[in-house]
Write a structure and sequence with these properties.
This is Cullin family profile domain-containing protein. This protein has nine helices and eleven strands. The protein is an alpha+beta fold. The strands form four sheets. Strands 1-2-8 form a three-stranded mixed beta sheet. Strands 3-5-4 form a three-stranded antiparallel beta sheet. Strands 9-11-10 form a three-stranded antiparallel beta sheet. Helix 7 packs across helix 9. The relative contact order is 0.10.
Length: 300
């Protein structure tokens, strides 16, 4: 008899063990995490998987991507929760193998869409500007997705073979994703519908997740750093502009005004805002109030 190699059996056992542990861990996390206590309704359907790197196939290169604020806020809570249970271990998030379901409301009805995290990031770029037409360059800044991956992701949303009506419209039309340019224009199709047997459906479900062949060029890492640098500069400029006008603000007010100013370019994460505030304090553009640690003062 020829059996499976011992190494394969050990990995398979670890995979099943991981899946069982994750079910228990998700339940425990939901019972203690701050987001659940703060009535974050997303937590009812949110789940994560923490997998042993040695047992599971490698998911490929790590890509940083802008996530919806609700998810962005939860990830540090998961890391803190996991750190308390397993001191010394470090989590690495692979967003390219994550997915979710969005409900899209068009003029014709409501539709549930299964999307990859990269597709969701692109769609969320219109959250604060639903009627706008966005260039490829603007979407690159908004999503933080490297150029080649963004082209492939956009292509899956503008030319999905199973749909007669596409979720996103664009101009000027091209033959392939690689022909998209910096000035290609994209906008949400609010006439979107699902057609079955020649009839318009007012409700429906579409799985839009496609297996994207992600780019592995070394240059992608440098490109990602350029986008992050540009975001940081825009965030610092906006903070200085706000503080110069207001002179004194608490952290919550500053974050709210900052997002309002930047939302037509991108929505800065809390982590980015914190890092840029610390940079501005270190370089004496602003300072913390001596009487209130959550308040900032503009330094002329």
């Amino acid at each position: 008899d020829v059996g499976m190699p011992a190494e394969f059996i050990i990995k398979l056992q670890q995979m099943f063990k991981d899946l069982k542990l994750n079910r228990d861990m998700n339940e425990e996390f939901r019972s203690v995490c701050p987001s659940s206590r703060n009535n974050n309704t997303m937590m009812d359907s949110f789940s994560f998987k923490i997998l042993s790197a040695a047992a599971w196939p490698h998911p490929g290169d790590k890509i940083d991507v802008s996530l919806p604020a609700q998810i962005e806020d939860v990830l540090p809570e998961i890391e803190e929760f996991y750190k308390k249970k397993h001191s010394g271990r470090k989590l690495t998030w692979y967003h390219t193998v994550s997915n979710g379901q969005l409900t899209f409301a068009s003029k014709n009805g409501k539709y549930d869409l299964d999307v990859s995290t990269l597709q969701a990031s692109v769609l969320f770029a219109w959250n604060h500007r639903p009627a706008n037409k966005l260039t490829f360059s603007e979407l690159k800044l908004a999503t933080n997705i490297p150029e080649n991956e963004l082209k492939k992701t956009l292509w899956s949303l503008v030319s999905f073979a199973k749909l007669k009506q596409q979720l996103i419209c664009y101009e000027t039309h091209v033959e392939s994703c690689q022909d998209l340019s910096e000035m290609s224009l994209f906008w949400i199709n609010y006439d979107f519908t699902i057609i079955r047997a020649g009839k318009v459906q007012t409700r429906g479900h579409v799985n839009m997740i496609q297996r994207l062949q992600l780019n592995t060029e070394k240059g992608r890492e440098e490109e990602n750093e350029e986008i992050m640098f540009l975001r940081g500069e825009r965030t610092k400029e906006a903070i200085v502009k706000i503080m110069k006008t207001r002179q004194r603000m608490n952290n919550g007010q500053l974050q709210t005004e900052l997002i309002e100013i930047l939302k037509n370019m991108f929505v800065p994460s809390k982590k980015l805002i914190k890092e840029m505030i610390e940079w501005l304090i270190d370089h004496r553009y602003m300072a913390r109030s001596e009487t209130n640690i959550s308040e900032y003062v503009y330094v002329a």
